Amino acid sequence: MPRSVNSVASRKRRKKILKAAKGYFGRRKNVYTVAKNAVEKAMLYAYRDRKNNKRNFRSLWIVRINAGARQYGMSYSQFMGKVKANNIELNRKVLADLAMNNPEAFKAIVEKVK
Q: Which PANTHER family does the protein's record reference (predicted)?
């Protein structure tokens, strides 16, 4: 009996990797073994950075809230402490958006907590 190799599945697997490596530089885009390593590494970075993205956004929101609060003579930590003490249930994302795009509303919150 002749040897059977599932070349259809093998080709599909290789094409999938090479398609994912589209746009890479040099041999990373067209040599399967090199592309496979590059794509695996890229997937690891993507997984890691989906977590880091959340951290980056939180720190951006904190910077924006801090800048907004300092205009009215408060630090970020004082402002957030008073927001929690006054049971204002706005998260950092919303507060940062108000501080940047709607300064009047942010000022009203600052006046309320002072």
A: 39S RIBOSOMAL PROTEIN L20
List the domain range (segments joined by +) for residue 100: 9-113
Q: Convert the pLDDT of each residue in 44-82 to its tens digit.
A: 999 999 999 999 999 999 999 999 999 999 999 999 999
CB 65 within 8 A of CB 96: yes
Task: Using CA atoms of 92, 98, 88, 110 in order, give the dihedral in degrees to the nearest 10.
Answer: 110
**Count of domains observed in the chain:** 1
Q: Report the amino acid identity of residue 92.
A: R
CA distances, 4 to each of 12, 13, 15, 65, 75 (Å): 17, 17, 21, 65, 71
pTM of the model: 0.77
